[in-house]
Amino acid sequence: MPLPLSAVDEDCLMSSTTIDSFAVFLRRVAPELLPPTTVGTSVPELLRHGRTVLAIRYSGGVVIAADLGSAMARHLRQSDIDRILGTDHRCAIGVAGAAGLAGEMIRLFQAEVDHLEKIQGQRISMDGRATRLSSLVRSNGTMMAQGLAVTPLLAGWDDLAHRGRIFSYDGTGGRTEEHSHACVGSGALFASGVLNKGYRAGMDRDESVALAIRALDTAISDDTASSRSGPDLSRGLYPTVACADSHGVTRIPTEEVAVLAKRVVDQITAESDREEGRS
């Protein structure tokens, strides 16, 4: 439960206007409200992991996409977990990792950015956001050692550079700017192969979304023992897809994703039929 203002001493309240990190301020005032740094791995729910999150740069911005499932012991368990959250109108985070921990990290990051912008009185640059997220990933290091790493991708439109940008992170909080595409999660190895083969400079948004769907299809097919493979057209289950461009962050409607997913599935089926015909 959040502390009432009456329980916070005057010095702490005054420091909130000088400490530019909300996480540091919260650690001083109410550390129990921060995401945990250690957890009991005996809790089955904590073994759930969002499997694949990816981002692709295209000519007018960035596409970020994630499958809807979470995996427990490499079997698909839940098919409605949303792994992409917009932090504001220019930036979005996709997260692979234990669902609850991922949500807490994103909410803390949102508060971190809002707090810093109020302290400085101006918008935080894309590079500044990437730096702030690094510190939050670093604080998850203990859980990473327990196999519960929360791994984000930061994607958004940079108003200063006038282009889409993607940042990936390692478990120590180190960040890397990716200039074409990036992928995290347990299916990243399989999806990356598709992205490396299919990506080309100058792709438009629809081409990038189609490539993202195809990469997720491969990741799901190869990464789980579940019988489900890729978009489930019969049940209306499709990847979550958003784009960030000069107009802001937009969640692509399910109906539009469904059309592109159907096209991708048809292409995969046709390719499979041709391979069988040759053999």
From TrEMBL:
<keyword id="KW-0647">Proteasome</keyword>
<keyword id="KW-0068">Autocatalytic cleavage</keyword>
<dbReference type="InterPro" id="IPR029055">
    <property type="entry name" value="Ntn_hydrolases_N"/>
</dbReference>
<keyword id="KW-0963">Cytoplasm</keyword>
<dbReference type="InterPro" id="IPR001353">
    <property type="entry name" value="Proteasome_sua/b"/>
</dbReference>
<keyword id="KW-0645">Protease</keyword>
<dbReference type="Pfam" id="PF00227">
    <property type="entry name" value="Proteasome"/>
</dbReference>
<keyword id="KW-0865">Zymogen</keyword>
<keyword id="KW-0888">Threonine protease</keyword>
<protein>
    <recommendedName>
        <fullName>Proteasome subunit beta</fullName>
        <ecNumber>3.4.25.1</ecNumber>
    </recommendedName>
</protein>
<dbReference type="GO" id="GO:0000502">
    <property type="term" value="C:proteasome complex"/>
</dbReference>
<keyword id="KW-0378">Hydrolase</keyword>
<dbReference type="InterPro" id="IPR022483">
    <property type="entry name" value="PSB_actinobac"/>
</dbReference>
<dbReference type="InterPro" id="IPR023333">
    <property type="entry name" value="Proteasome_suB-type"/>
</dbReference>
